[in-house]
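Appendix B. One record, verbatim.
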Amino acid sequence: MTFLSKYAQTTNKEKNFGFESGAIIPINYFGAGPLKLSENNSELTLSSKVGYHFGMVIKTNYGKRFCIENGINFLRRNFIIHGSSKFNGSYTSDTSKFGYISYGIPIRGSVFIQLDKEIFMSTSVGASLDFYASAVGSKGINYNIDHISDRARWINGSISAEIGVELRSEVNGTFHVGIGVNIPISTIAVTKLKYFYNINDYDRYENEFLKGNFFNINLRYYLPKYLEEKKS
């Protein structure tokens, strides 16, 4: 019998329904920094930008100090490509932006330390089953950049960790603020790039593999218990 099942048998379980949203902040670690690329007649830089996520969550509390959460999330990672070329005495530059969408089914376990009557600090670790919507393409503002990102696979996994602070109120519900990191197990997309330095002439770049790692700021709100009792 696992520790969790022993703990669950001796502790009252309580479920909370909630919502979460937040910002996806790119990081320059674990191979996820800006990609600086060059070919014979052009140069490109592919960088991550701030994205966002939102979803719903079900929290199962085992007493005040431990919980397990699961739910479903929508995530949009944003990217920007800068390109330039010097060819036959002329200079061109271009910019292209695109977003890469995925859906996640996360599960995480959290341990809480009580700081005050209604304030708790938490640490959590978890994993997610991630589904990527489709390939995405984009053109540059000046049509010099030609880009397409194919999903490397339609299903992937990721691991996550978070630290946060939670304010629990029987009347107003529970408010949670956290800072976390998310690291996909493998590449999320294969990016193919061209830069047209002349009307019909272009540099074709080697395929690049997007890692998709990010920090995130998480905001969660769990409904107060009396509202859930009314629904049931």
